[in-house]
Amino acid sequence: MSEFLVKHRGEDHDIGRFLHFHPGGSNTLHSFQNCDVTKQFEKIHHSPAAYELLKDYRIKNDSEKIQEFDLENLVNWEKPMLWQVGTLRSDYNKWVLAPVDRKLRLFQNNFLESLTVTPWFLVPSVWIPVSVYLIYCGYKRLILIPPLDTFTSSSMVGLLSFIVILGYFIWPLLEYSIHRWIFHLDPPADSPLLITLHFMIHGLHHKVPFDRQRLLFPPAATAIIVSTLHALLRLFLPICITLPLLAGGILGYVSYDLIHFYLHYGSPTEGSYFYHMKRYHNQHHFTHHQSGFGISSPLWDYIFSTSIKLKKIKYHLKW
């Protein structure tokens, strides 16, 4: 990223790396290059998270001691983070919702660390073949069940497709539920274990939302969720229904994860569905942390009254 200097409260900042991620679009910042943005910050009513993030772009002067309290001094960024977050206790929630533009390491061990980073193409590469295999296994079991064994091939394919599509459209509710009631469940301050668990499954994404290697759920962790869902479905449904239903849910998950990546790194055009969802998800990250839990769709946010009302703007945003 090229240099983009602004001044805030008398200090110089280089926000060149942040232009692409600015919730208000990079085009709204161009006129402020080499300018003082202190009054603009107050005028727009930037969130506390924005003020904390700005510190990451401050051009530090080694000869000058900065007196302002910095949340990031609560941890050591030179060491693996997973074993530190539990010690934050009552400071954890404030710290984890203050995003930074840094690389975060969870484990000292390189193999364990490799399991926690996920390039975007890995998710479809792993889970689409799994879904196809589950659909095939479901088909092989369906054709053995009387009176389904009398169905024509086209009828059987139609039934199988219906089950898969049903699983696909059940996913957004599951996505909303997991995001709201598990990922955003505030861990108690007196439980380092639950704080560490929360950070590992979702808190780290809110802490480093610009790290493209941590935007998607790692396949190893997803496998645990898929196995759990399979076991739960088997309590109520026969295997011939469970497999294609689970396959549809997995395809829904793949869509969700790729959409999530695009909302962070993509540049959707004005008026498109993803343009709206990018603005929506940015608000979840920077301002409305307890709203806007839908990522692939805002439907369940409207149903459960957790939707975010986006401000009307006179200009289009470019990222």
Written account of the structure:
The protein has 319 residues and is mainly α. The chain has 2 domains: 5-68, Flavocytochrome B2, Chain A, domain 1, CATH 3.10.120.10; 110-303, no CATH class. Helices cover 48% and strands 3% of the residues. It has helices at 38-44, 48-54, 92-96, 110-114, 122-142, 153-183, 192-207, 219-234, 239-265, 273-286, 299-303; strands at 5-8, 11-14. It has a two-stranded antiparallel sheet. Strand 1 (5-8) and strand 2 form a beta hairpin. The chain is globular.
Secondary structure layout plus pairing:
Layout: E1 5-8, E2 11-14, H1 38-44, H2 48-54, H3 92-96, H4 110-114, H5 122-142, H6 153-183, H7 192-207, H8 219-234, H9 239-265, H10 273-286, H11 299-303
Binned strand content: under 5%
Number of domains: 2
Helix/strand-derived class?
mainly alpha
Question: Describe the biggest sheet?
Answer: 2 strands, antiparallel
Number of helices: 11
Give the SSE string: EEHHHHHHHHHHH
Q: Return residue spans where pLDDT drops below 50 for at least 5 consecutive residues.
A: none
Quantity of strands, as a count: 2
Task: Characterize the quaternary organization of these chains.
Answer: single chain
Spatial arrangement of strands, main beta sheet: 1-2
Mean pLDDT: 93
Radius of gyration: 23 Å
Rough outline: globular
Residues in helices, as a percent range: 40-55%
Quickly describe the structure.
The chain contains eleven helices and two strands.
For this entry, give a set of tags.
single chain, 319 residues, mainly alpha, Flavocytochrome B2, Chain A, domain 1, two-stranded antiparallel ribbon, 11 helices, 48% helix
